[in-house]
Amino acid sequence: MVEQNFKGTLLVVDDETNILFFLSQIFSPKGYNTITARTGIEAMKYLHELSEKVSLVLLDLAMPEMDGIQVLKAIRRDYKDLPVIVLTGYADKKEQVEEIGIEGFLVKPYSLEDLYNKVSAIIEQKEFKESSSDVEPNLIISAKVLVVDDEKEICELIADGLQMLSPNVDFQVKVAKSGEEALRIAREFDPDIAIVDIKMPHMWGDELISRFKKGEAPCPKDFIVFTAVDDHQQKTKATDTGYKFLPKTAKLEDLIEVLKKTCVKLNLVKKKISKVQGT
User: What is the mean pLDDT of residues 26-46?
Assistant: First the structure.
């Protein structure tokens, strides 16, 4: 029987027994099952047997027989969509493992809070990617959306695109061309979701989100980062906190689909209004 707070199964791979035990003790009360492996060979054996149950791999690099680099290459070959976070004392290996493909890289000794937040965000994003934007036939998606971007054309494009979706959805949309304007509008509009650019004059998007969370204005229930900034650090900052991150090269349809999925996740729906038949 699956516990109600079950969040996923972690495969922890490290040749140090105390680390395996410690991480199991940390994650178990938070709703995660853990499978532990002391060697790369043992880790791959578990994956071959239980790959459908494993949500994420926490992987050390320095191990005997089959090291972490070899394990990572095998995972990317056989289970390319399985998220991997590398936990290592070798900071100089970051570029090498990023080229192979990882979702996170933490250098020992790392913050347990950072590790937990990273694991939670990655699993949430994986579940979100696999989720649907469909709702019951008698319901429609309904939300107040705040678009924050210093480019007028982008604001208009998104606002027009969202408002043309009726009758399948009901989006109320407000636009702001700066962080200061976004805070002012939010005090009256009380948005459900904010679509936020990162690079804006005077106040960047990450600062705006922080000020929302500090209570300077009614805070949206979720944020979607939609930006031309292709900075790895900014992308990591967004995804580590669970925000959805889309480049402006993405199609408007992709942004709308992410928005609709977010609404479904937050249960931002309402009953359809039945049309009165004429007599």
Answer: 93
Q: HSE-up of 189 (CA within 13 Å, CB side)?
A: 23
Task: Determine the average pLDDT of the residues in 249-257.
Answer: 90
SS (H, E, C) the chain: CCCCCCCEEEEEECCCHHHHHHHHHHHHHHCEEEEEECCHHHHHHHHHHHCCCCCEEEECCCCCCCCHHHHHHHHHHHCCCCCEEEEECCHHHHHHHHHHCCCEEEECCCCHHHHHHHHHHHHHHHHHHHCCCCCCCCEEEEEEEEEECCCHHHHHHHHHHHHCCCCCEEEEEEEECCHHHHHHHHHHHCCCEEEECCCCCCCCHHHHHHHHHCCCCCCCCEEEEEECCCCHHHHHHHHHCCCEEEECCCCHHHHHHHHHHHHHHCCCEEECCCCCCCC
Q: Is the pTM of this model over 0.70?
A: yes
Could you give the CA distance from residue 213 to residue 147 in angstroms, rounded to a whole number? 17
User: How far apart are the two ends of the chain, measured CA to CA in Å?
Assistant: 55
Q: Identify which has the larger pLDDT, 114 or 238.
A: 114
Q: At what angle do helices 40-50 and 68-78 cross, to 10 degrees?
A: 20
pLDDT higher at 176 or 230: 176
Domains of the chain from N-terminus onward: 8-130 (3.40.50.2300), 139-271 (3.40.50.2300)
Which of 227, 254, 249 is CA-nearest to residue 238? 227
The string of pLDDT tens digits covering residues 216-225 is 999 999 999 9
Q: What is the pLDDT of residues 87-146, one digit of tens each?
A: 999 999 999 999 999 999 999 888 898 899 889 888 888 888 888 888 888 899 999 999
